[in-house]
Each structure stands twice: as C-alpha cells, then as structure tokens.
Amino acid sequence: MIGYVTLGTNQYENAVVFYDDLLGSIGAGRFMEGEYFTAWAVEPGQPGVCVIRPHNGEAATVGNGTMVALAMKTPEQVDALYKKALALGGTDEGEPGPRGEGGFYAGYFRDLDGNKLNAFCMVQ
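RESULT FIELD:
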C-alpha cells in the first residue's frame, strides 16, 4: 500500500550521505533523484524512503507523532541498523529490544534532521 515516505531536510547533502550509507547497509540504493530530493528502495517498485528540501522554501520540521518504520528480517538486522544510524550521527530514541507482546522487536533513532525512524521485525 505505501509507495514511499518523504522526510524533509535542512541539510540535504548530509542527509543524502547519511541515507546512502544507512540504507545501503540493508541493500537499498537510489532509485530516483533530482536537484532537491533523493529516494532509496531495495528495488524500484518497492516501498522507499525519500529526503527532500521543502518545495515551499520554508525550513523542514519534524512531525510530532510521525515515524518511518524500516522492516528487517531478524533482531540482529535491527540491532545492526540501529547501531549504524548512531554511528552516522543519528540519535537514540530507544535501544533495540522487545516491545509489548506479540513478538515485536524494534530499535528507535532520529536522523540528522531529527526525523524519527525505527528498525523492526516480528519474532516468532
């Protein structure tokens, strides 16, 4: 159902470097780019993540309650992506671990602009 999500950035070049490295670590690459935006996906036609300078010229702001969840297959992949985000300058929003009931395992972080993301998987 979701084609892609877009995250605003006030530091476009740094955001592109951050996401090239972060999303490249899970096999995603650029599938679209222009002067003010870049988008990544594991393969074209699959859900993607895009960073963009806001078209209206105003500063990008973080949505309160907005978060992008990146699906992983194993807890080890969740741990690795979370650690990679922090190593690239992201900030911690909740170390990886089980959340609630039902096998949900997730780690939460913010990118360089403060956009909130998580890496998650379902554990049987």
